[in-house]
Structure formats: C-alpha cells, structure tokens
C-alpha cells in the first residue's frame, strides 16, 4: 500500500508539472503568472477522480514548478500552499454541493463554474500575489494586474481542463458511428479553430462568431464535443491576449485580463451549461420511456380477459 501511494503521488506530481510547463509558455508576469494555468484543472480533476489522497502529489508538483522560479524559499512555500489549498477547497465545495463527475446535470455545470473555478481559485491568486508583493518581487502597484492574471489563469484551468479530463475518462468510441458523424466532428473542430483565428487577428470585434460553433458542439456532441471546442477557443484567445493583437490591441494588462476573463467565461459557461442541459434532457427522456414501458406492462397484466404476451 505505501508503494502504491508513493506511485500515485509521483504520477499526480508528474502530470501537474507537465501541465505547468505548457501553461508557462504564455506567461505574462514575472515568468510565473499566466492567463491559463492547466495544473489547477489537473489538480481538481485528480481530487474528483482519486479523492483527497492525491493532494500530496499536487503539493509536490507545485513545489517542483515554483522552486526554480520563485523569489525565495519562504514565498515559494506560501505559493505552493496556495496552489494546493485552492483546488482542495474547490473540491470540498463541489462535494458539499453534491457534484457528479459525469457533468450531466445543470447544477453540476453551475457548481463547477461558480464554486470550483470562480470561488475556489480566489485562494491561490490572492495568496500568491500577496506573497510576491511582500517579498518585493512585485511592486505594490502591480498587485491587481497580477492578481487578475493569476485568478484568470487558475479559473480558466478549472473551466477548460477539468471538464476535458472528466469527459476523456468516460469517453468511448461511439458504436455504429457513420462516416458523416466523424466528418461532422472534424468540421466542428476545424471550424472552431478557423473562426477563432480570424476573430482574434481582426481589428473588428468578431469574437461572438464562435458562439454558434460552441452551441453546435453542445447540441450534437454534448460534453465530449463542448470541452475540446472550449479548449480551442480559450487557448487562441489567450494567445491573442498575450500578443496584444486583434480586439486586445492598445489596452492595459488589467483591461485585457478583464476582457479575456469575460469572453472565456462566457464561452465556457455557454458550452458547459448547454451540454449539461442536453444531457439532462436525454436522461429525463430515457426515464420517461422506461416508465411508459413499465406502465404498459402493468396495464396488460391488469386487463381482464387478456393474456400477458411473451417477452
């Protein structure tokens, strides 16, 4: 058992570290703060799927990431504590709200957005930014711009990466899928990427053009389609924000972060909520069909003068 626990801790730490290296490719503040921080989504997914026993792996991965880039040992430990406590508190909030990892109910999508992402990630962003200011790694005037980037990155990591991992865990190759179905999925992904590239490189405000593709993904493929499309939208929007091009040209860092968070939050919320509503509708329909079958069987048994047909 100790060997299995150690292997689990190292595996979680390795995945956390790999996600962090991807996130640092788009750092905006002090080579450390990025508007998309995948490790928070990875950490919350590990907690939801493996339970609280995975927190040492999260802490170890956060330490491996922040030790080389942190200002000093004590601030690094404080940042690691914030990076560990934030997903752990988000996990506890979701458990208290009765969250289900299938994400097939509207309440699950709302809980992930407001409890897991927006509320839970306040811990890491506030603690981490305050530590950098107190350690003189950042001027006090940079607190709110840095906090906005940190909170945006952690929240978007939960909104984008966690649903993707939860959907991937339950993903199965569809039985009897026609070539048209596969072609539709490919067209959806390519169309989403193409529209976002045009919208984020154009001086005109064309970001709204991506919403029909997100609705298409949620209606036709539910969470397995909505999660990858949300990831594409978020990554391309963050890249445009980091480069300061398209709709994000000529604005301060704080303004760009507010705009980015509003856009990414709107797109992800649209995709997740609509996918959950469709899944809930389909589940309700199946329950109604089962009740109808049971009712028909009961009527046949209670009808006098008729024999119950063989199954």
Write the layout of secondary structure elements.
Layout: H1 2-23, H2 38-50, H3 55-66, H4 73-96, H5 106-119, H6 122-134, H7 143-170, H8 179-201, H9 211-243, H10 253-302
Helix pairs in contact: 1-2, 1-3, 2-4, 2-7, 3-4, 4-5, 4-6, 5-7, 5-10, 6-7, 7-9, 7-10, 8-9, 9-10
Q: What's the short version?
A:
The protein contains ten helices and no strands.
Describe the structure.
The chain has 311 residues and is an all-alpha fold. Helix content is 75%, strand content 0%. The chain has 10 helices and no strands. Helix 1 (2-23) packs across helix 3 (55-66), helix 6 packs antiparallel against helix 7 (143-170) and helix 8 (179-201) packs across helix 9. The mean pLDDT is 88.
Distance between the termini: 49 Å
**β-strand amount:** under 5%
The coarse silhouette is globular
Low-pLDDT stretches: none
**Helix percent band:** over 70%
Number of strands: 0
Task: Give descriptors for this structure.
311 residues; mainly alpha; 0% strand; globular
């Amino acid at each position: 058992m100790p060997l299995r626990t150690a292997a689990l801790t190292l595996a979680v730490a390795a995945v956390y570290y790999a996600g962090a290296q991807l996130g640092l490719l788009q750092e905006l503040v002090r080579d450390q703060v990025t508007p998309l921080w995948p490790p928070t989504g990875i950490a919350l997914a590990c907690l939801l799927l493996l339970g609280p026993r995975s927190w040492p792996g999260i802490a170890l991965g956060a330490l491996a990431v922040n030790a080389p880039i942190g200002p000093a040992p004590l601030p690094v430990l404080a940042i690691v504590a914030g990076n560990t406590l934030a997903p752990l508190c988000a996990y506890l909030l979701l458990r208290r709200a009765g969250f289900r990892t299938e994400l097939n109910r509207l309440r699950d999508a709302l809980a992930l957005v407001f409890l897991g992402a927006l509320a839970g990630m306040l811990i890491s962003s506030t603690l981490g930014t305050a530590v950098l200011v107190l350690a003189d790694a950042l001027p006090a005037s940079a607190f709110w711009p840095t906090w906005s980037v940190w909170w945006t990155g952690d929240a978007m990591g939960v909104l984008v990466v966690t649903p993707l991992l939860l959907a991937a865990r339950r993903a199965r190759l569809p039985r009897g899928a026609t070539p048209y179905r596969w072609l539709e999925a490919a067209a959806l992904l390519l169309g989403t990427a193409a529209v976002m590239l045009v919208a984020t490189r154009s001086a005109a405000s064309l970001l709204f053009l991506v919403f029909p593709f997100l609705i298409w993904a949620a209606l036709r493929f539910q969470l397995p389609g909505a999660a990858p499309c949300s990831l594409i939208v978020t990554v391309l929007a963050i890249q445009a924000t980091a480069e300061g091009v398209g709709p994000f040209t000529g604005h301060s860092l704080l303004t760009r972060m507010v705009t980015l968070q509003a856009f990414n939050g709107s797109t992800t919320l649209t995709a997740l909520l609509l996918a959950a509503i469709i899944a809930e509708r389909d589940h309700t329909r199946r329950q109604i069909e089962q009740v109808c079958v049971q009712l028909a069987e009961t009527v046949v048994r209670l009808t006098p003068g008729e024999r119950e047909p063989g199954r």
